Q: What sequence folds into this?
């Protein structure tokens, strides 16, 4: 499954979600604490960085993507999932 | 900023989704989960 995260309030994510009809949830991490716990943000960083983390079924980190190029990213992740079997 | 290392346990979290319903990592157990961060809702950059 997929989860999108930003520091936006729920209402902003709702508008974004409605506009593009995302097939997955967009989560609000307004105080950045969860993002910081993943190392995806510094405390009080104003905007989220474009990073991704793939979590394995056992809850461990399977792969991290520190620089995401939006156009190429889905293929990259799908290829990695194939490699994990 | 340093992302967690491969093999580390992902931190548990509870966050509201776009409808205000809480989503937990625990509810995703047993599946691969891709978490992607974006800078701002509805911006290309």
A:
């Amino acid at each position: 499954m997929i989860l999108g995260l930003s520091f936006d309030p729920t209402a902003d994510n709702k508008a974004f979600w409605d506009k593009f009809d995302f097939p997955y949830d967009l989560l609000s991490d307004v105080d950045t604490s969860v993002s910081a716990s993943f190392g995806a943000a510094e405390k009080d960083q104003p905007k989220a960085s474009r990073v991704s983390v793939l979590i394995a079924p056992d809850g461990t980190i399977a792969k991290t993507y520190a620089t995401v190029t939006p156009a190429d990213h889905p293929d990259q992740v799908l290829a990695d999932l194939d490699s994990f079997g | 900023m340093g992302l967690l290392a491969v093999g580390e346990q992902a931190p548990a979290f509870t966050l509201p989704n776009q409808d205000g319903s809480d989503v937990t990592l625990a509810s995703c157990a047993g599946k691969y989960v891709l978490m992607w961060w974006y800078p701002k809702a509805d911006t290309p950059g």
